[in-house]
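Pasting two entries for a bug report.
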Amino acid sequence: MTEYFYISLFAVVAIVVVGALLALSTVLGPRNPSAQKLLPYECGIIPTEEAKGRYPVRYATIAMLFIIFDV
């Protein structure tokens, strides 16, 4: 019974430490977004147009078939 207590105590302490570190980094971290930082990075090339968001469903079907038969 005491083994489970120590293991669960260790897990709780680990979760608390991780949560505290995440909270501290959120609270204390610098927040200075600029236009340069918000641009997507493309190997140093400034993007000239918006990314195309959609692709045909046929492509997804072919990709899934490739994954299935490749294995």
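Entry 2 (this is the one that rendered wrong in the viewer):
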Amino acid sequence: MLNISVEEIVHHLNEHLQKAYESSPKLEQYENPRIVQQDDILLVGVYGSHIYGLATEQSDLDIFIIASEGLDGELAKLRELIPNKQDYSYQVTELQINGKQVDFSIYSEKLFRELLMRFILDSFEFYSILMMRREWMVHVNEEFAQQIKEYVENNVVNSAERALNLRKAISRESDHSFVKGKNKIVKEFKVYKGIKAMFHSLRTVVFGIQIAKHNQVIDFSKANEYWKEFELFYREKIESQLNVEPIDYEKIWLTLPICLMVLCLCFIGNTSARSIAIKNRAGGDLTLVIDFGKGKDSSSSSSEKKKQELPAVDETTKKVIDKVQDVISSSEEKQIAESLLTFANEIRQMEKLIPGSNSEQKLVKQELLAIINEFTKESEKPSAFILKSSLEMVADAKKKKTEQQQAEPGSVSSGAQSLFIQAGISVLNDAMNFVDGIGTYSTKMSSVGNWISGKLATKLDSWGLKSVAQFAKNTGKSIDGLAKKVAPYEQKLAKAIAPVVKSKTFQSIKRVVNVVGGAISIKNGLKHLGMLPKQLPKAFNKLKSTLTKAAAPIKTKAASLIKKVTKSGAAVKKANSAKKAAKAAKDAKKATKAAKKAAKTAKQPGKLAKAFGKAKAVKDVKDGFGDMKSGLFGEGKPKKSQTNNKKQTANNRRTTNNQTNNRRTANNQTANRRTANNQRGNTRNSSTRTNSSRRSTSSSRSSPTRNSTNNRGRQTTSRTSSTSRRTSSPSGRQSSSRSSSSSRGSSGGSRSSGGSKGGRR
């Protein structure tokens, strides 16, 4: 271990900075360097060969330094001095401390966080040393160390691009080291350093696997066994070639793939436990054969492997889980588990009594099996589901508090933070109870009970299964009663959790929610959290096994059940056709056309009504399953019930549309009558004119004077009569005007000559 203090490190860094400014023309444009203070140094630790366990007497001492943001500008200037720099840090290599060559790698706080987010291997090695190997730390700022721990747990390892960033970083580092190794041998003629670089390429992959599994490097000596193989190969196969002049470095490089193949055999065998063999082809090529068959591991090794693959549980999650036992006793949890199995068994008896003779009944049976499956699963550890619900309440209260603080800065003090969360929990729970399908574990359980005692019981009664319907009502009410007993546990547990997470961010609390939820969904996940399954009496264990087998067929069908049944049902197809026909019938003309089309399709009038009836029945059951699915599984958005105002508005709109259609029909009928009257009037008028013209000609021949006067009078009368009939024509204003004008002409003498002219025409 290095016997040096942080004061000495600060002194050496200031000396180095001053020399760099004095000796480099590039830095003449800047003022004197900023003096490094002790507070600028956040972390100092040893890494490299001393941590790996491969250090020798000749090995340099590698030290990493994390500096505060105040030194970021100085480090940026110093990095300008290094041409073609590929590394991320600024490195100091000419320092001698206590007669030992010391290499410093200096990172700013900002750069360190950025490299962690990108999974750069050096940064994760430093983080792992800080978390697990404190004996190799020279100096630690505890406040900064806690900040880095929370940053990695809450942001880095939970990032949506975690897998992508890790794969890219490890692949890049491994590839870079491999190419570097080849160049060291072929171009720089440094064989031993080239082999070290190739070993680092393999070690990078080993460390990457540990980071993927555990979010840090947990064993820095894991790859050392491969280094022994490299050294052995160097002594037996390469060292002899270095003693023969001229040295063929290309041949040395081509010899290395044999060693690499052997190491790959060891590496793949250790990491995947596969059967591996080497085959010699006819051309002399060696082929690596790996058996990726479906051979099963023994139960002990398989369980051990799964246990290793599970990530470590963080301290916050552990503290939260510890609160469960303080709120829910073992006997209380046992009662809840037994109640869940009892209700699942009652639902199973209901499901057996439903005939399943049509698609509707089959759908209901499937829904009941889904509930049985869920209740059986929850009976394994009811406190885990209550814990998840309580955490969600705390997270939502924390989110609301954060939003309020952003809207009103300074309105809530940090000291009152826990109290605010507790108060918010009560309000949140009350609000959730009014929203169907959204809320706590107890409200979801209550929605299942209400569906069974309500819609399901009504449907069973309509099928003539009256005794089963009554049984459903009683069971549903009992489930709702259990939900009311569970609700206080949620409240109490949420208030107990609040002080534990009062200093955490919303994202941190949400992460704990996801951890608990993920543990519920995977096998042995709860055991990993320390929440062992509840031990039940033999009778209930046997019942649980029976119910699990009964609900097995539904596990793969729960998600697509409703779509499959409704899409394949003939009743739904007819219902869809009927709905389209009803929608198309907006007025009398469309209604007639739609009725003809529907009658042609259904063949009998009664089938259309029957299709509507079946559509309504399927819709009722579908809505019930949607409520249950939303409440039990948290899927889908709940359907809001129509208020009385909305229903009244819809009725008023339909009434208005009906009145409008009636007025249009009446107007059409009036127009048809007017058209008919006009046609009859025109026919009579034409006949009258012809007869009048004949009488006028005859009278004119026998008595010119008297007949001329009479003729004018008759013609005027005829014109008036004809015009009067025209008033019934559609052109109302014009006909009325002409009738009035002609009438005045018959009483006044000045208009009579006009009538005479009309007679002559």
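Dev reply: Rendering is fixed now. As a check, the viewer should reflect this: The longest helix spans residues 644-702.
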